[in-house]
Amino acid sequence: MASYAVATVIVLSIILIGLLLMRPSITAAQGGKIVAFIAFFILPIVATVLGASIHLENSTSTQFCLSCHVMEAHGKSLYIDDPTYLPAAHFQNNRIPKEQACFTCHTDYTMFGDVNAKMRGLQHIYVYYFKPTPNKLALYEPFKNRECLHCHAHARSYEETSPHKEMKEQLAANDMSCLTCHSQVHDVTNLDKTKKWKGPGG
């Protein structure tokens, strides 16, 4: 729907600009000046803002993240058939939205979390096109418990189980990483040795 709105604004802008180029005398009247202002300034700005908004929303999708070939193995790791693999267990059991699997776990849950995630995404694009791809992909900074606790804090399965309830304060303060125990993440190096889940009906 939003893409349709952008296309409509662009087409309308092209029609008005074409009309003004074919009949520039229109701009002699007050109404013509207003039409020219709308066609050359207002409509392009509206199209740009709407288009940017759509692309920013699309950049949160799993499909977008995995469209880069260096991330393909990470996408395949979501299908490892082993409940100890953290990303796979979350993805396969709908603990995160499948359409936004990457973004859900790799967004900083702070005031500017979405903006920070998008800036890191732009950094990825810069490295992808202008620098050699690293042999081993790594996060820019260690994964914080805050990202896990955004969903798991106050969940019964977290609050009432050991060792979570005994270490609740340490985990909340990030004094001990959730990944100390839940250490099986995107094991892309051993991907070919793991059994894969084929998905519903597979």
Give the topology.
Elements: H1 2-22, H2 30-58, H3 62-65, H4 72-76, H5 86-92, H6 101-106, H7 113-130, H8 145-152, H9 156-159, H10 168-172
Helix pairs in contact: 1-2
Q: Would you write up a description of this structure?
A:
The chain has 202 residues and is mostly helical. The chain folds into two domains: 2-58; 62-193, Multiheme cytochrome fold, CATH 1.10.3820. The chain is 53% helix and 0% strand. The chain contains ten helices and no strands. It has helices at residues 2-22, 30-58, 62-65, 72-76, 86-92, 101-106, 113-130, 145-152, 156-159, 168-172. Helix 1 runs antiparallel to helix 2. The radius of gyration is 24 Å and the shape is elongated. It starts with a helix and ends in a 30-residue tail after the last helix.
CATH class categorisation of the largest domain? Mainly Alpha
How many strands, which pairing sense, and closed or not: the largest β-sheet? none
- Overall domain count: 2
The low-confidence parts are none
Mean pLDDT: 87
Task: Give the number of helices.
Answer: 10
Span from first to last CA? 33 Å
| Count of individual beta strands | 0
Succession of helices and strands: HHHHHHHHHH
CATH architecture of the largest domain: Orthogonal Bundle
Output the structural class: mainly alpha
Radius of gyration: 24 Å
The gross shape turns out to be elongated
Q: And the CATH topology of the largest domain?
A: Multiheme cytochrome fold
Helix percent band:
40-55%
What percentage of amino acids are in beta strands? under 5%
